[in-house]
Structures are given as C-alpha cells and as structure tokens.
Write a structure and sequence with these properties.
The complex is a heterodimer of chains A (88) and B (205). Chain A has 88 residues and is mainly α. Chain A has one domain (3-82). Chain A contains 5 helices and no strands. Chain A has helices at 3-13, 16-20, 26-38, 40-60, 66-82. Chain A is elongated, with a radius of gyration of 23 Å. The termini of chain A are far apart. Chain B contains 9 helices and 2 strands; from the N terminus they run H-H-H-H-E-E-H-H-H-H-H. Chain B has helices spanning 12-27, 31-53, 59-74, 83-102, 134-143, 146-153, 157-168, 173-180, 184-204, and strands at residues 116-117, 123-124. The N and C termini of chain B lie far apart (46 Å). In chain B, 43% of the residues are buried. With 205 residues, chain B is mainly alpha-helical. In chain B, 65% of the residues lie in helices and 2% in strands. In chain B, a hairpin with a 5-residue loop joins strand 1 (116-117) and strand 2 (123-124). A two-stranded antiparallel sheet of chain B has the order 1-2. Chain B has one domain. The chains are: A mainly alpha (88), B mainly alpha (205). Chains A and B meet through helix 2, helix 4 and helix 5 of A and helix 2, helix 3, helix 5, helix 7 and helix 9 of B.
C-alpha cells in the first residue's frame, strides 16, 4: 500500500463514525465512499462497524426477560397502591 | 389516540420527546402514563446494572431505587425534556451506591467511574466481574446474545458505558455527555474507539 493510500486511510478513520451516524455532509460521504471502492480494508471496516452498530441497536430493542418484567410490574402496583402521588 | 409508548421513535430526539410526554402526563396524575414511565425506569435500571456495571446481583435493588426516585421526582420536574439524562444519572448513582455498600463503605470508595483509566487518560468505571448466580446467568443468557455480552465485557468500562447509552439505549450525544460528565466531542471520540474495539471483540468471540 502506498504512503498516499495510508494517509487516506488514516484521514478516513477519523470520519467513519460521523459517516455512519449521518453527521457528514454529502461531499464528506462521497469522499469516504470513493475511498472504500478502492480500499477493501477500509470498506471492510465500515461494513464491520455498521454491523456492530446494528447488533447493538437490535439488542437495545430486546424486551426484558418476562420474569423480570412481571416483578417490575408488581413493584409498580405495590408502590401506586401504597403511596398517594404528591401534588405538583 | 396514540399513547406515547406506542410511538416507535426513529430518532433520539423522538425518544426524548416520548419520555417528556410521559413525564408531563404522569405529573398531571395520569396513572397509565405513570405506570409506563415507572416500567421504563426499571427497564433502564436493569439493563444498566447488567451491561454497564456488570452486576446482575444488584439489578433488582437498582430497579427498586429507580422506581422510587422516578415516582417521587415526576411531580417536581421542571424540564421534562431533561428527564432521560436525570434517569440514567440516577441509575448510575444507584449502581455506585450499591457497590459502596457491597464493599462495606471503605474510606476508599468504589465507584463505577474510578479504578480504570481509558486510553485517552480519563478515569472510567471500574471493571467488575459480578459473582453471577446461576439463576441470573440463565435469565441473562435467554435475554441477550452471549456473544455481544462477552464482547461488551472486553471494553474499557468508560467505553462500555458510552456504547451502551448511545447504541443500545438510544441517548443522543448530548444526553450521553450529560450522564457521563464529559464533553460531546469526547463522547464522539470514545464512541468511535468503542465501536472499533467492540467489532474486534465480536470477531474474536
């Protein structure tokens, strides 16, 4: 890999997360996409991070285990039955 | 009418607005809104205890703390939009206090922010390995991919908190900065490093 290519890769690294979060402008996105077309390593990194973010977001949507939810609901009912809400 | 919880927020701002709506309605005495809000508070406490602090044995106590504090706080809140930051900060503090009690209130208090130093030189939450009871382990295994949990454990704790708050809990960069007590720029830096480390860990699991 040439020094220029390495420099491009280093410059891109600092912007990948902004790119994936949609925080880059159109020109910035195009720069990254153009680089990735010619650099399999960076393309793999972008794809890997995209998958990682997706995995985390999917996990964040997973409901709590049912036994835990049931205990949480029971706690809420006990609390609301035992305390009168304070007035604003 | 669509209830706040029925909305599927597509952005962090939407999610914050859903919470704010629930807070406003609960504060006016809407029991249904209060129940939804209290359930969310406990869900946050459960996930934070397990994923950030790594103490499944503390989860139920931290949930109880989040439940009571949210209930008492709702009628006093002046800025419903700031509720999420308040909630995660409260849960973080509850985890910290729980750890203090576990270690018998030594003069050198254990907190989830101290004990570990990240590669940007800032102290991060202490790395912990909970002595997980078999029952807790079973519940967790059924709940969340073991692969992801194992990978999360390998992150420096301060990075783990950022990635959980941002990616899994869906907080905005500003909200994460408020909970973690760092700048938004620092949140972005840590988040990027955390993503790279997490990806490497996932490939190795």
């Amino acid at each position: 890999m040439s020094q220029d290519a390495n420099a491009d890769c280093t410059a891109m690294l600092t912007k990948i997360s902004a790119y994936l979060d949609g925080d880059l402008d159109a020109a910035g996105c195009q720069t990254i996409e153009r680089h990735c077309r010619n650099c399999p390593r960076c393309a793999a990194l972008v794809e890997g991070l995209r998958e990682t973010i997706g995995l985390c977001r999917e996990a964040g949507r997973t409901p709590l285990p049912e036994p835990v939810r049931q205990r949480a609901k029971a706690s809420i009912q006990r609390l609301l039955a035992s305390e009168k809400p304070s007035q604003p | 009418m669509t209830k706040p919880e029925d909305v599927n927020p597509s952005t962090e701002e939407d999610a914050g607005a859903v919470y704010a709506g629930l807070v406003r309605e609960a504060a006016t005495g809407d029991r249904d809104a209060m129940e939804r809000l209290l359930m969310r508070a406990q869900e946050v406490a459960y996930r934070f205890s397990l994923l950030v602090c790594g103490h499944p044995q503390d989860a139920e106590d931290v949930m109880q703390e989040a439940l009571l504090k949210t209930y008492r706080y709702v009628s006093r809140i002046k800025e419903p939009a700031a509720f999420r930051t308040w909630l995660y900060t409260t849960v973080q503090n509850a985890c910290r206090m729980k750890r203090r009690r576990h270690v018998g209130e030594p003069s050198h208090l254990t907190s989830i922010e101290q004990g570990a130093t990240s590669d940007d030189g800032e102290a991060g939450p202490v790395e912990v390995e909970g002595h997980t009871r078999p029952a807790d382990q079973l519940v967790m295994d059924a709940w969340l991919s073991g692969r992801l949990r194992q990978a999360l454990k390998t992150l420096p704790p301060s990075y783990r908190m950022i990635v959980v708050l941002r990616e899994m809990e869906g907080l905005s960069t500003r909200e994460v900065a408020g909970v973690a007590g760092i700048s938004e720029a620092n949140v972005k830096t840590r988040l990027h490093r955390a993503r790279v480390l997490l990806r490497q860990a996932l490939e190795g699991v």
